[in-house]
Design goal:
Order of helices and strands: EHEHEEHEHEE
Shape: globular
Strand content: 15-25%
Structural class: alpha/beta
Number of strands: 7
Number of helices: 4
Oligomer: single chain
């Protein structure tokens, strides 16, 4: 199981979306593509922005909705946990088809 320590790449304030993209592309994606589980450890991170969490997770969730089930988040304070939940929710919602009045699919969100 691969462990990613976010503070090593972002410090105590995880706000740089470029750093998040680097972690995603160089650590998280390869770990998931190898078929394993990945721990994203927020130990030492006091604050994160939604743009950081979005850059870290959104593309992965959109491209492989099953990947979220193979990611474990550890040492998240309540604000970081809330951001993860928000990003995961709207990233998954974008995959759901919209239904017309007759139940027929009319598009994607």
């Amino acid at each position: 199981m691969k462990r990613i320590l976010v503070s090593k790449h972002a410090g105590s304030f995880a706000g740089d979306k470029d750093a998040a993209a680097l972690v995603r592309d160089s650590l998280l994606n390869p770990g998931l593509k190898q078929g394993g589980n990945v721990i994203i450890d927020f130990k030492g991170v006091d604050l994160a922005t939604q743009s950081f969490i979005h850059a870290l997770l959104s593309n992965i969730i959109r491209s492989d909705p099953e990947a979220l089930g193979r990611i474990t988040f550890e040492n998240c304070n309540s604000s970081v946990q809330e951001l993860i939940e928000i990003v995961a929710e709207y990233s998954q919602e974008e995959l759901q088809p919209l239904a017309g009045g007759d139940g027929e699919e009319v598009g994607k969100r």
